[in-house]
Design goal:
Blueprint (H helix, E strand, L loop, with lengths): L26 H128 L1
């Protein structure tokens, strides 16, 4: 997009009046003027792009802030859920510990009962054995006494 520029290449003479409102137009100044106009447009485009990017950045920061708030809320909710679960599990564990303790006491009590029954069984077996021996001895004595009585009666 080069605008056409017509430049008077004729030499200006000192007779040409150049006033303060009309600067002398040379090829260099014409190119500078065009460059300034294009630069101003490009600069304005850059300013507009910067403004757009700043707006997008602002929107992104706001979105990021909302995301962080949402993340914090979700994290707090998850933490609260975990606390409730942990409290429930702790309560259940305490209940199981109490049941376990009660069962262990019952096992000890029954173990003592079984041991005591075993001791009584051993004692009763010895007593039974002693009674069987005593019965045998007494039966032998009785048989001997009867035999003596029969002999004496026979006499």
């Amino acid at each position: 997009m080069n605008p056409e520029l017509t430049v008077d290449t004729t030499q200006s003479t000192s007779d040409d009046p150049v006033g303060p409102d009309e600067p002398e137009l040379t090829a260099t100044t014409a190119f500078e003027q065009i460059a300034d106009e294009k630069g101003s447009a490009a600069l304005q485009e850059l300013k507009d792009e910067v403004a757009t990017l700043q707006s997008i950045n602002k929107d992104l920061n706001a979105s990021n802030s909302e995301l962080l708030k949402t993340q914090n809320i979700l994290q707090s909710q998850k933490e609260e859920e975990l606390r409730r679960s942990m409290a429930l599990l702790t309560e259940q564990m305490a209940s199981k510990d109490l049941q376990n303790s009660n069962l262990l006491k019952e096992v000890v009590r029954r173990n003592e009962a079984i041991r005591s029954c075993g001791e009584e069984i051993v004692k009763l077996r010895k007593e039974s054995s002693n009674l069987a021996l005593q019965n045998k001895r007494l039966s032998g004595e009785l048989a001997g006494i009867r035999a003596n009585e029969e002999r004496e009666m026979e006499r």
